[in-house]
Amino acid sequence: MEKIVSKKNERVKKWKKLHTKKERDTSASYLIEGFHLVSEALQYGAPVQEMMISQEVKEELYPDYPQENMVLISKEIAAYLSDTESPQGIFAVIKKEDQLIPEDFTRPYLFLDNVQDPGNVGTMIRTADAAGYGGVVLGKGTVDLYNSKVLRSTQGGHFHFPVYQGELTEWFEKFKAADFPIYGTELNVNAVSYREIAAPGVYGLVMGNEGKGMNPELLKQTTKNLYIPIEGQAESLNVAVAAGILMFSLR
């Protein structure tokens, strides 16, 4: 097994750069960290390019991992690469796979417009999977799927559940062409309670930015605008909580 002990090694520098979106886009790859994410990647056949394991990790903890492309790294390098407070000492570089807009839709989809909190995005991806949605689309301004905090929040869900990144208007056009409704989520005079909606089997549900809500131009393209009635004194709901209520209720 190859061994690298210096942080000055060029490969180590390249792995570190994968924490930036620019490098992820340039290299068409991304970095995952931790036993759970690596195990999920291997279980679902993700294209693992390299796997790095700290010298501190006991060999019996990874007996079935493929030896090809496995690199043993020093504890210092593991700490350098880690984006967590308590590194587990295991990493993998995964090749990004292109996903095109499907030709046919058989389930509803969740669209995220400029949602910027990684925890919210990860939670909504996992909830959409649990609710039986066809996929999640991360629109313009939404945090990158391959951001390390998003990846930890999804718990590896993106390895088996479709998550796309692209222009929401392109998806809207596909849905409209098939006569599938698109529901916005903006509290205004035209909004109706989600309880009044009898959603069909296929539709799009759009969740907007945590503070500003949906982009007005996208809002104009929606079929109907929904809101969640609040009976207490709270002014609003967290976007991931609201998405969970709507996804399960409309489904």
Look up the CATH topology of the largest domain.
Alpha/beta knot
Tell me the total number of β-strands.
12
Which CATH-level-2 architecture of the largest domain? 3-Layer(aba) Sandwich
End-to-end gap: 49 Å
Molecular shape:
elongated
Low-confidence stretches: none
**What letter string, H or E per element, gives the SSE order?**
EHHEHEEHEEHEHEHEEEHEH
- What proportion of the residues is helical, as a percent range? 25-40%
Strand order in the largest sheet = 8-7-6-11-9-12-10
Taking Cα atoms only, what radius of gyration do you get, to the nearest Å?
20 Å
What's the SSE blueprint?
Elements: E1 2-4, H1 10-17, H2 21-27, E2 29-33, H3 35-43, E3 48-54, E4 70-73, H4 75-81, E5 90-95, E6 109-112, H5 118-130, E7 135-138, H6 148-154, E8 163-165, H7 168-177, E9 182-184, E10 192-193, E11 204-207, H8 216-219, E12 224-227, H9 239-250
Parallel strand pairs: 1-4, 3-4, 6-7, 6-11, 7-8, 9-11, 9-12, 10-12
Antiparallel strand pairs: 2-5, 3-5
Helix pairs in contact: 5-6, 5-9
Question: Would you kindly provide a written description of the structure presented here, covering whatever features stand out?
Answer:
- GO terms for molecular function: RNA binding; RNA methyltransferase activity.
- Belongs to the class IV-like SAM-binding methyltransferase superfamily. RNA methyltransferase TrmH family.
- Keywords: Methyltransferase, Transferase.
- It comes from Desemzia incerta.
- With 251 residues, the chain is of the alpha/beta class.
- It has two domains: 2-95, Ribosomal protein L30/S12 (60s Ribosomal Protein L30, Chain: A); 109-250, Alpha/beta knot (3-Layer(aba) Sandwich), CATH 3.40.1280.10.
- The protein has helices at residues 10-17, 21-27, 35-43, 75-81, 118-130, 148-154, 168-177, 216-219, 239-250; strands at residues 2-4, 29-33, 48-54, 70-73, 90-95, 109-112, 135-138, 163-165, 182-184, 192-193, 204-207, 224-227.
- The strands form two sheets. The protein has a seven-stranded parallel sheet.
- Helix 6 (148-154) links the parallel strand 7 and strand 8.
- Helix 5 (118-130) runs parallel beside helix 6.
- It is elongated, with a radius of gyration of 20 Å.
- 34% of the residues are buried.
